[in-house]
Design a protein that fits this description.
The complex is a heterodimer. Helix content of chain A is 45%, strand content 13%. In chain A, helix 3 packs antiparallel against helix 4. By secondary structure, chain A is α+β, with helices and mostly antiparallel strands. Chain A has two domains: 96 residues, Alpha-Beta Plaits, CATH 3.30.70; 66 residues, no CATH class. Chain B is mostly helical. Chain B has one domain. Helices cover 69% and strands 0% of the residues of chain B. Classes of the chains: A alpha+beta, B mainly alpha. At the A-B interface, helix 1, strand 2, helix 2, helix 3 and helix 4 of A face helix 1, helix 5, helix 7, helix 15 and helix 16 of B.
């Protein structure tokens, strides 16, 4: 058994508005390691728990650049260096013809980076996660909204955090075993 | 907190979701089709029919692999026949799915949320059907990987100046990105199904597909960025795909192909036929599965309007082709026009004009746009018309090009027809399975359309 078998404390709310207000309050109370769960994206919720910037766009930019540059480089290398063939007297480096494949591969690499990058940054696929140990959490993909304070938070204290969460008027507060 | 007052002004029309729904009724209604609705006799009978049609495709392709493309009606001068006609037709149908999922997403057309999932599925299945044709048409499909640039013992590389190579990249990218976009959209819904599933086996399957999605605010944040970027990437992609397909023709010098109007006219035609297919599928599906609350008359009417608009662009394309036949002063171009109107394929051309230009004009009248029966019929007519358009472009131009000594006729064989009908079977088989094993409407995106999901104004009021 680890030193701290509790993963965190979870509070359940009935509406997106309540969750957003609770997230704001929790963040203002100084809790840093907090997460919120909802069945659909809620505007401003990530910001409320102090998560402002994600790196998906950067990953996509890098992916797209790699795709585009490598596509053009491949075509140049094939058509000019390794396999130059005179087709209708066109120059070997007939760049207008290379734009389409460059464009398509830019999109392909950028798109794959968007999907794979998003999943990787989210740490998915993840076969096991402690939050699913709370039976009520099955409604998190349905119509219930959850807020968790992780036990790794420096301000976390089983009793005080519980009474803080209960002060937010949730439906229930549950301990999440890890 | 009185939040009921904030109904947007634009929603005084028929609503996108029928009133009275909550987060859980949406989830219940959509996921029950997958999880608990019993398999009906009608579904089984229909499946047997479409599955038999798909097997006809397998037979036609099997025989093709044994005998070669000689079993088709193609020969010189018409080397492109049904294979390319059907390829362009199917690819075009796919375009509406991406238009709905990506372009309408960027334009914040929220009504798209209830039809994007199955429109995207339609895209995937249509592109899969399309892909069969050029592969089979290569004659030796088991060597089709030669089209890709890879180091090989023949010391050979593809010619990147050829539109046919561009096509390989455009279509394979299109399929991949459509699949990724579709799958990313499905992840939160897989999680919903996982949490609702009664049996452990079903739960495991959807659980695997959901990959542990738990709806964390951080995850949603990255998810929304990724989804928006995918939409932004898919938008130029979908426009490029039919543009590249049109280059297959426009880069050639055959009269009727060598024109600069082809890219926009192909893209408009693709969306035209795609929306026709969306309507042909949506009208029966919403009725059979009782989804009139989510796919309302508003959706059908909007789709009809898109069809009407793109149909007019296509009509402009025909008009411009005819005008250039006269205005260019080129003997070949004016002969092409004469040949379309009076040549051996004149009936196809007349049918094309009727199906694509004349009949869809009734959509100007609201009466036809809000009658599901009429709408289905007109969409079907448009699908036929768009198929004829590709037939005219491919066959008529090739049959009589430059020298009278090389004029010829094209007659499709039974194998051509079997392959074509077979891909329709394959498409419908995939659709048949899709509606029963995946949520055909995006659950989480539909939930965001409910006023309860909007927290922003309420939060501001409180401060």
């Amino acid at each position: 058994m680890s030193e701290n078998p509790t993963y965190g404390l979870m509070a359940e709310f009935d509406s997106a508005k309540e969750l957003l207000a609770a997230a704001h309050k929790t963040h203002e109370a100084g809790y840093q390691k907090v997460d919120a769960y909802s069945p659909f994206p809620i505007e401003g919720l990530a910001e409320a728990i102090g998560f402002h910037k994600n790196h998906v766009a950067l990953v996509v930019l890098i992916g797209g650049l790699i795709g585009g540059i490598s596509a053009y480089a491949l075509q140049y290398w094939v058509a000019v260096i390794t396999y130059p063939v005179n087709i209708g007297g066109r120059p070997f480096h007939s760049w207008p013809s290379f734009i389409i494949v460059t464009f398509e591969l830019t999109i392909l690499f950028a798109g794959l980076s968007a999907a794979i990058g998003m999943l990787a940054l989210n740490g998915l696929p993840m076969p096991y996660h402690p939050v699913f140990n709370v039976p009520e959490f099955a409604r998190a993909s349905e119509n219930k909204f959850f807020l968790i304070v992780f036990s790794s938070d420096s301000k976390y204290d089983a009793a005080r955090t519980r009474s803080f969460l209960e002060g937010l008027a949730p439906r229930m507060v549950a301990e999440v075993p890890s | 907190m009185a939040t009921n007052t904030q109904i947007p002004v634009a929603d005084r029309r028929v609503p996108v979701i029928a009133p009275g729904h909550t987060f859980s009724t949406i989830g219940e209604k959509i996921s029950n089709i997958v999880l608990s609705r019993p398999v009906s006799l009608g579904w089984i009978l229909g499946f047997l029919i479409v599955f038999s049609m798909m097997n006809m495709l397998m037979m036609a392709l099997g025989y093709l692999f044994i005998k070669g493309t000689g079993i088709w009606g193609i020969n010189i001068p018409i080397g492109w026949g049904f294979a390319i006609v059907n390829f362009v037709w199917w690819i075009g149908i796919g375009h509406a799915g991406t238009l709905i999922s990506a372009i309408l997403c960027l334009l914040r057309q929220t009504w798209r949320n209830s039809i994007n999932r199955f429109a995207e599925a339609m895209t995937l299945f249509a592109v899969a059907c399309a892909g069969i044709f050029p592969l089979a048409h290569t004659g030796r499909p088991w060597l089709a990987y030669w089209l890709f640039p890879y180091p090989n013992t023949m010391q050979y590389w593809p010619n990147f100046r050829s539109p046919l190579v561009w096509d390989v990249f455009a279509v394979s990218t299109y399929f991949t990105i459509s699949l990724v976009f579709w799958f990313v959209g499905l992840i939160p819904d897989f999680a919903s199904l996982r949490d609702r599933a009664e049996s452990t086996f079903v739960q495991r399957i959807y659980g695997l597909l959901a990959m542990g999605w738990r709806g964390s605010a951080r995850h949603w944040h990255r998810y929304e960025t990724a989804y928006l970027l995918l939409a932004g990437l898919a938008t130029p992609l979908v426009l490029s795909v039919h543009t590249v397909v049109s280059f297959d023709f426009a880069v050639g010098i055959v009269p009727g192909w060598h024109t600069t109007i082809f890219p926009p006219y192909f893209v408009a035609g693709a969306i035209y036929s795609g929306f026709a297919m969306v309507l042909c599928l949506a009208i029966p599906i919403r009725r059979i599965y009782g989804l009139q609350d989510f796919i309302t008359m508003r959706h059908l009417e909007n789709a009809a309007k898109v069809m009407l608009a793109t149909g007019l662009i296509v009509a402009y394309g025909y008009g411009m082709e005819a005008f250039m036949g006269w205005y260019s002063g080129s003997q070949l171009d004016s002969f092409l026009l004469w040949n379309r109107l009076h040549g051996p394929y004149r009936l196809s051309y007349m049918a094309l004009l009727a199906c694509n230009i004349l009949i869809p004009q009734v959509l100007w009248l609201k009466k036809f746009r809000i009658s599901t029966g009429w709408l289905w019929l007109i969409s079907f007519v448009v699908l036929v018309g768009m198929w004829l358009e590709r037939f005219i472009i491919v066959v008529v131009s090739l049959s009589r090009d430059f020298l009278t000594s090389s004029f010829g006729m094209y007659y499709p064989t039974k194998w051509d027809w079997m392959t074509f009908a077979g891909t329709i079977g394959m498409f419908l088989t995939a659709m048949w399975l899709f509606v029963r094993i995946l949520p055909m409407i995006s659950i989480f995106e539909l939930r965001t359309l409910l006023p309860e999901s909007q927290v922003h104004e309420a939060a501001e009021v409180k401060q």
